[in-house]
Design goal:
By secondary structure, the protein is of the alpha+beta class. The protein is built from five helices and 19 strands. The strands form four sheets. Strands 5-6-3-10-13-8 form a six-stranded antiparallel beta sheet. It has a six-stranded antiparallel beta sheet with strand order 11-12-9-16-19-14, with no helix packed on it.
């Protein structure tokens, strides 16, 4: 029996996308604060603790459940949008930065997706947005997401957002895949996820990449982004500093200004 509200949706745009969700009367969608774009007049917006599930529980349990969101770096509150009219109504949510919105039917993936901490955008009411603790020390100390990742559970539609182009990989049983830790968006629960050391002195000192890979072993599905927001922000910062000093493009390797000279940009 479906617990989540059944919603219809359309995704618009290319690089800066938004998702338009159509709600029947009394249907509700939940979202992260700051993702709202526009809505019809029959939609009521309300701020709630957590994701709105377990509202029949006591005050302390609700506070504890919502407070766990702080561990993932998310806000304590979420926002609900409910159609109080007699006809269909629409509400839209926008991407926070250039990338793609990923629609997820949770029933197709064992009712659970594990994702990076800032990937969740919105979902049909009934979805649970919580935290997923890592059981492995390597993942905790060296993974881009630390000990804590986000999990989305339920039997309805949910929407993630990630930067750049989104690659979807379906891993077969015992199939291995290595990914930059910052490029990993999410994966299904049955994927075995760990962090491994790149290895090699030259790779470590001169590689210009991270020191660790995310190791993923199937079976299961994996979502990968080509442009994590941390990489985009770092590149903008590096480039702006270089131009402010009169230099050319700055790269992430230890060669620094020597790398600029070899690239033909000068000091």
């Amino acid at each position: 029996m479906m617990q989540a509200h059944e919603i219809d949706f359309t995704i618009y745009g290319e690089e800066m996308q938004f998702v338009e969700i159509e709600l029947d009367p009394e249907e509700t969608v939940i979202s992260e604060p700051g993702s709202f774009l526009m809505m019809d007049e029959d939609i009521e917006m309300k701020t709630i603790f957590g994701d709105g599930t377990g509202q029949d529980e006591g005050v302390m349990k609700k506070l504890f459940g919502a407070g766990k969101r702080l561990l993932t770096g998310e806000k304590l509150f979420m926002t609900t949008y409910t159609n109080l009219g007699y006809d269909k109504a629409k509400v839209s949510f926008a991407s926070p930065y250039p990338g793609k919105i990923i629609p997820i039917d949770l029933t197709e993936y064992g009712n659970k997706i594990i994702c990076q901490k800032d990937a969740f955008l919105c979902a049909a009411k009934g979805a649970r947005v919580g935290i997923e603790f890592s059981k492995r020390l390597g993942r905790g100390f060296f993974g881009g997401e630390g000990f804590i990742m986000q999990k989305i559970e339920g039997d309805g539609m949910a929407f993630m957002h990630a930067g750049g182009f989104i690659v979807e990989k379906e891993l077969a049983y015992d199939e291995h895949l290595r990914v930059d830790t910052g490029c990993l968006v999410g994966f299904t629960e049955d994927v075995d996820y760990d962090i491994i050391f790149v290895g090699g002195v030259k790779n470590t000192i001169f590689g210009g990449e991270g020191l660790f890979f995310a190791s993923l072993v199937g079976p299961g599905k994996v979502w990968i982004q080509t442009l994590p927001i941390s990489r985009l922000a770092d590149r903008i910062l590096t480039q702006s500093k270089g131009y402010m000093k009169g230099g050319g493009k700055g790269e992430g390797s230890v060669l620094g200004q020597l790398g600029n000279l070899l690239d033909g940009d000068g000091f």
